[in-house]
Design brief:
Shape: globular
Helix content: 40-55%
CATH architecture: Alpha-Beta Barrel
Structural class: alpha/beta
Strand order of the largest sheet: 1-2-3-4-5-6-7-8
Bound molecules: 1,3-dihydroxyacetonephosphate
Radius of gyration: 17 Å
Order of helices and strands: EHEHEHEHHEHHEHHEHEH
CATH superfamily: Aldolase class I
């Protein structure tokens, strides 16, 4: 098995107040000493990517976008291409987040087209999948996620592909699956990816867990060998909580807890 480098990514969603760049500056300073062990990625709203890039320049902390269009240019009011995000400073992009799938009716096919476009632009796509509570209660969690992976990821996995398993019912709710459930879902996700893209690509792809990751549950989740990192929403908005989550990774235990 390949040793996959851990990744902790912060998804700021539609949150960035007047002090947002100051927060990024603070995060970059705090995360820099930790970044030789763990990839740290901040995905702020695209409007502040360029400003944030001036703060991450020469530093190991990376920036990502939260969505991109599947085309490179054209009459798509309000949209951003993968190339534009890259030019603004992004190195990765979150795609197919459940909030996009719900708010914007994004289909697996569209997510797949965006994933291919991101790869072609040199962005690492972070493809999100996850079941609803009704699907879990119906015993369909693994089948749902496997089907999403098959239809949302191009057969030829883009360079730097990352998957994020985010159960819809765990996002922003304070609820999380049990550790056994997380293990089972990550194993099922990797098997589905292997069927779709081949064993080598599946082995190289990081699978992050997302959904109510907080400083107090991060150590338990991040110590699971099936989990290659976390995609953090609410707790990534403040330096203290994001830093505590990164520090909770077992690779960083020598830095102690926050
Ligand atoms: P929360 O960490 O706020 O539950 O959000 C998770 C998420 O949606 C990250 O993409």
């Amino acid at each position: 098995m390949t040793a996959r480098r851990p990744m902790i990514a912060g998804n700021w969603k539609m949150n960035a107040g007047p002090d947002a760049l100051h927060v990024i500056e603070e995060m970059v300073e705090a995360l820099t000493p930790l970044s030789d062990q763990v990839d740290c990625l901040i995905c702020p709203p695209a409007t502040i990517l360029a400003g944030a890039r001036s703060l991450t320049k020469g530093k190991p902390v990376r920036l990502g976008g939260q969505d991109c269009h599947h085309k490179t240019s054209g009459p798509h009011t309000g949209c951003l291409s993968a190339d534009m995000l890259r030019a603004a400073g992004a190195e990765a992009v979150i795609l197919g987040h459940s909030e996009r799938r719900t708010d914007h009716a994004e289909s697996d096919a569209l997510v797949q087209a965006k994933t291919a476009a991101a790869g072609e632009a040199g962005l690492a796509p972070i493809v999100c999948v996850g079941e609803t509570l009704a699907q879990r209660q119906a015993g369909q969690a693994e089948a749902t996620v496997a089907a999403q992976i098959t239809a949302s990821v191009p057969e030829r996995a883009p360079e730097g592909l990352v998957l994020a398993y985010e159960p819809v019912w765990a996002i922003g709710t304070g609820l999380t699956p049990s550790l056994e459930e997380i293990i089972a879902m990550h194993r099922a996700a990797r098997q589905a990816l292997a069927r779709r893209c081949g064993a080598a690509a599946a082995d190289a792809t990081r699978i992050l867990y997302g959904g109510s990751v907080k400083p107090d549950n991060a150590a338990a989740i991040l110590s699971l060998p099936e989990v290659d990192g976390a995609l953090v929403g609410g707790a990534s908005l403040e330096t203290k909580s994001f830093l505590a989550i990164v520090r909770a990774h077992p690779m960083l235990s020598r830095f102690g807890s926050a």
